[in-house]
Design goal:
globular, 12% helix, mainly beta, 194 residues, eleven-stranded antiparallel β-sheet, 11 strands
């Protein structure tokens, strides 16, 4: 279980992550105002489906996941980023926890510091869902584990990420992408459970 949680930390690196400081300064995370996305994650033989909601060029983000957990049935969770903060929400267990915002590369405006820190290299192009993506190689380390990632990026958002870490391979693939979609503001509300 610990290995899975560490692997999930790598996933946060390229999905929802810290953008709070740049967002507060008015920088954009994505090259589109809003989107609704669906992604499949193939991790250790398990497929996880995620629905994402983005607004205000990435200043507002929500990723909702429903997973079948043995002995518990369907568990619905979300990660919501807004106002420079991040929340983990478990709708099934009615729990909300404010968490530290995860560090994340802004692929829309790659900084020289991120390129050096994560050894980012542009390695090609590929077309996914009819969108031309730039493919990067990235190296990351979390809690002493090194990971090699290949990330296919369209307007700042990862359409495909392949992560290899300690013999494990995790593949995240965009299956639906609605650019400039109308996103209801309630999606980003932090629930107040009693």
């Amino acid at each position: 279980m610990k290995a899975k949680s560490l692997l999930l930390s790598f996933l946060l690196f390229v999905s929802l992550g810290a953008y709070a400081q740049d967002a507060a300064q008015g920088a954009k995370k994505y090259g589109f105002k809003s989107a609704i996305t669906k992604m499949n994650t193939d991790m250790m033989g398990q497929t996880i489906e995620t629905t994402g909601y983005i607004d205000n060029y990435g200043a507002l983000e929500c990723q909702k996941v429903t997973v079948d957990v043995p002995g518990m049935g369907k568990v619905e969770t979300a990660v919501i980023n807004k106002d420079g903060k991040s929340w983990q929400v478990n709708y099934t267990m009615k729990q909300v926890e404010e968490t530290p915002v995860q560090d994340q590369v802004n692929f829309l405006e790659l900084s020289a510091a991120d390129v050096e820190k994560y050894k980012i290299k542009e390695i090609g192009k590929e077309t996914l869902l009819g969108k031309e993506c730039t493919v990067y190689s990235v190296q990351n380390e979390v809690q002493g584990m090194k990971a090699n990632l290949t990330v296919s990026v369209y307007k700042g958002i990862a359409f495909k990420t392949v992560t290899e870490v300690q013999g494990y391979k995790i593949v995240i693939t965009m299956t639906e992408f609605q650019e400039d979609a109308m996103v209801l503001p309630q999606v980003f509300d932090i629930p107040k459970f009693k």
